Amino acid sequence: MTFSKVLVANRGEIAWRVMRTAKATGYRTVAVYSDADKDAPHVAFADEAVRIGPPPVGESYLSIDCILEAAHKTGADAIHPGYGFLSENEAFATACVNAGLTFIGPPPAAIAAMGNKAAAKRRMIEAGVPCVPGYQGTDQSDANLETEARKIGLPVMVKAAAGGGGRGMRLVEHDGDLLEAIRTARTEAESAFGSGELILEKAVVDARHVEIQVFADAHGNVIHLGERDCSVQRRHQKVIEEAPSPAVDASLRDRMGTAAVAAARAIGYRGAGTVEFLLGADGAFYFLEMNTRLQVEHPVTEAITGLDLVEWQLRVARGEHLPLRQEQVTFTGHAIEVRLYAEDAYAGFLPQTGRIDVWRPATGPGVRIDHGMKDGLAISPYYDPMIAKVIAHGATREEARVRLVHALAETVVLGPTTNRHFLIRLLEHPDFAAGEATTSFLTKHEFPAPAISDAHWTAAASLLWQASAQKYPPSMRGWRNSNPEPTPIRLSAAGSERQMQVREPDPVEVPFHIDGNDILLDIGALTVRFTDKTYAPPETAAAGSDGKLRAPMDGRIVAIKVAAGDKVSRGQTLIVLEAMKIQHQLKAALDAKIEAISVQEGQQVSNRTVLVTMEPDAA
Ligand code: MV4
Q1: How far is CA 486 from CA 502, 509, 531, 554, 603, in A?
Q2: Would you state the pLDDT for residue 577?
Q3: Is residue 338 exposed (0-12), middle (13-18) or buried (19+ Cβ within 10 Å)?
Q4: N or C end of the chain: which has fewer CB within 10 A?
Q5: Catalytic status, residue 28
Q6: What pLDDT band is residue 517 in, cutting at 50, 70 and 90?
């Protein structure tokens, strides 16, 4: 059925990416946005934009009514769901069809067929698609599942039939853990997916996750567009995806592609789909699940086939035949994608939020960066904190890998902490570079937080000094006619603190951004946030444990609160120092007895001058 105006029911990079192809192929485009996304690029890019609600997904991007209302309001006659959100929601696809709209995706029945793992596996077994040996039956009693697990032989995977993407999955290696695993998996599945139905599978250890891109039209044509290797995952979240797989040769590609086409054909598939397989070290492969949507990682397939998969989706949705027959599909070179996230890979991958102050995506031969970003846009806590997908294509895998590392290194993203440095280390790891990463890669290898280099500290102090003349005026800078004194600057970062002495510094050429009292600085693809503590209450730089209280900066003694012989306790104010119109309470860092006071009230002192000497109490 023909259509002329496409509403993209999504946000971020995929909304922008889909609209780019839709516009380029002559469609008018409609964006939907929540209040959190009103300044997002995809909204400005669209021909029309409709606010669909407040930021929470349940009241915006997951609201079928709001989205259909937006289509009605704008006269959109087709809807592209993107990925995530409602893209695999059968009710949404049905509601689109019932509203007379073209759903740019598979038939609702195909979505339903793949929604339940047990039913999907039964369909695949019927279609002759190789599946992991296991149990996907209806007798869900503890006793039967235990018996079936023992028939399969440990280790087994217990999976939620209504789950997917590894959610509700549990590996059982010891017989004694079996019953407990079955019971907890069932309970978790009931609360997470509304169904406690389980399937059991032989655990395929140290496997690769290799998925086949399939495409089907409404005229019975079904082809595949090769494979993607997505083995490098963290908690079932893909981190690196590449095409082709280092472990797949032409013969295996042909066999996996044939199986994937059979799977799509068996469920009357239409449009873009992905059939996920586990590929064992022995070359055997097994059906995992089928994703009835365009995947995040589709750009690596586009890079090696030279095709635009969204353009194919639009063609198929308007009833056209697939543009190519299987034998016409060709693969050129290699492509690798990473997902750039606002998350702290060195602190438990904690998601980060906040404004992206500086966003400068890299460019270069073979580099593609799909993003929904611009300077000043915030990563909101309501949605997936993906900033961009960074893809590099090359004639060889090594060229693609090197190009990707350089693209990441040259991409400037200053604001929330990101996983950029972590991604570079993954790509540079010898096992990955050798094409030997399997699904155990991220459990086998540690990537601890890197130390902050002296270069980072020095550059941060220099840049603050240069950029903040008003903060460190000559009087503060220790400047004297004869010879310039160094300027004291105290910085903290990642829980440590340093007192720096800055003379007239050399120019520093690194990406940086000054954000109030902080400076974000990038050296060697490691971005560090430093906080200027120079003016922080010196108790944060209290007297060292050597019993000497020193001036933390140039200033004037305005009050002396103690006398020689006094007993003082930790945190007690000893001296008040005025610097830059701020009165700093200089406190004792430990219980002690005052031995000597070396200054008088009204005296001007320089940074680091010893003011008070104490005898620490015996520990
Ligand atoms: C498995 C498996 C090994 N044996 N099933 C299912 C969802 C998908 N995203 C990951 N899944 C797996 N299913 C059996 N029978 C291995 C994976 C798997 C995986 C498991 C743990 C950690 C990372 C993984 C990455 C890819 C695949």
Answers
A1: 5, 21, 19, 11, 20
A2: 87
A3: buried
A4: C
A5: no
A6: confident
Cα separation values, 125 from 128, 131, 208, 287, 288, Å: 5, 7, 21, 9, 12
Q: Does the pLDDT at position 299 exceed 60? A: yes
The ligand 1 atom at the shortest distance from the C-alpha of residue 236 is 9
Residue 479 is predicted with a pLDDT of 47
For a mutational test of ligand 1's pocket, the pick from 198, 240, 278, 290, i.e. the residue with the most ligand atoms closer than 8 A to its C-beta, is 278
DSSP string, 222-277: EEEEEEEE---EETTEE-EEEES-TT--HHHHHHHHHHHHHHHHHTT--EEEEEEE
> Does the CB atom of residue 157 touch ligand 1 within 6 A?
yes
DSSP string, 312-338: HHHHHHTTPPPSS-GGG----SEEEEE
**Is the Cβ atom of 210 under 6 angstroms away from ligand 1?**
no
The rounded Å distance from CA 166 to ligand 1 centre is 6
User: What's the Cα-to-Cα distance from 528 to each of 50, 408, 501, 534, rounded to whole Å?
Assistant: 38, 16, 19, 18
Backbone angles phi, psi at 212, to 5 degrees: -110, 130
